[in-house]
Amino acid sequence: NPSDNDYQNRYITIPKGTVVSGQPVKVKHHQVKKIVIKSSSLSYHLKKAAVLPGYYLEQWQDLTGDISYSHARFKRVQKPKFVLPNSDGNLYQGRVPKEYPNTFQSNKLMVTSDGYVEWYPYDSSVGPEGFINKPAGVAKIIRTTVRDNYCYLYYDHHVNGLGDKRIKKANKTQYRLKVTDENHIVTQTIWDGGKQAFVAKLYYAQYSVGGTTYYTEVGEKSLD
């Protein structure tokens, strides 16, 4: 909450059968004991229950706390076709990211782990990160086809902000969005003025989505 300079942790229940993106944080005797889930990869459809008046959901690098892992609660599944390679599902419009830490200051596209396409317009006057909680355009992915370095996402209505195409007059797959992996990595070196040194390299993959270029963070490497 930027007005009160406050933040809160909120709880949601993730329904059975939901695909989540996570990673182990505690492994003992070759067994996973705890994991974290990247909650910024989940759809607004799930997270809206956590929204409070005056508060904004974190839009990137948002992780849950450690969650006890068991086979009764989690099942490892094959990555869905709509989950993009080299991406946690958060993509930002543009070809060359702005200088860190102002990198993620452009329109945002999400292809969520639970199967939604969401588009958020960037506005520097909105919240601490420039994004509203509710996407300006959203659709549930009904079908995905993969061809070489691109895929088609199908859904039942136009998503505001995206260059999807209507391919049928009716039914649940009448709109199609083309997502192309450009097989190109951009490297960004972070300078720390306090240390007077380059402290890390960030790596971004680039995608063409409906004819518009987006970048997504792949990972980082410490230099110090």
Summary tags:
224 residues, ten-stranded antiparallel sheet, 1 helix, mainly beta
Structural class: mainly beta
The run of helices and strands is EEHEEEEEEEEEEE
Main β-sheet: number of strands, strand sense, barrel status? 10 strands, antiparallel
Task: Indicate the low-confidence ranges by residue numbers.
Answer: none
Q: Please count the beta strands (DSSP E, at least 2 residues each).
A: 13
Give the helix tally.
1
Give the averaged pLDDT, no decimals.
92
Rounded to an integer in angstroms, the radius of gyration calculated over CA atoms is: 18 Å
Q: Percent of residues in beta strands?
A: 35-45%
Tell me about this structure:
The chain is mainly β and 224 residues long. It is 2% helix and 39% strand. The chain is built from one helix and 13 strands. It has one helix at residues 44-47, and strands spanning 22-28, 31-37, 67-68, 90-93, 108-111, 116-120, 137-140, 143-147, 150-155, 165-166, 175-192, 197-209, 212-222. Strands 4, 5, 6, 7, 8, 9, 10, 11, 12 and 13 form a ten-stranded antiparallel β-sheet that branches. Strands 1-2-3 form a three-stranded antiparallel β-sheet, with no helix packed on it. The longest helix has 4 residues, at 44-47. 24% of the residues are buried. The model has no long low-confidence stretch (mean pLDDT 92).
Short structural description:
The protein has 1 helix and 13 strands.
Secondary structure layout:
Elements: E1 22-28, E2 31-37, H1 44-47, E3 67-68, E4 90-93, E5 108-111, E6 116-120, E7 137-140, E8 143-147, E9 150-155, E10 165-166, E11 175-192, E12 197-209, E13 212-222
Antiparallel strand pairs: 1-2, 2-3, 4-5, 4-13, 5-6, 6-7, 8-9, 9-11, 10-11, 11-12, 12-13
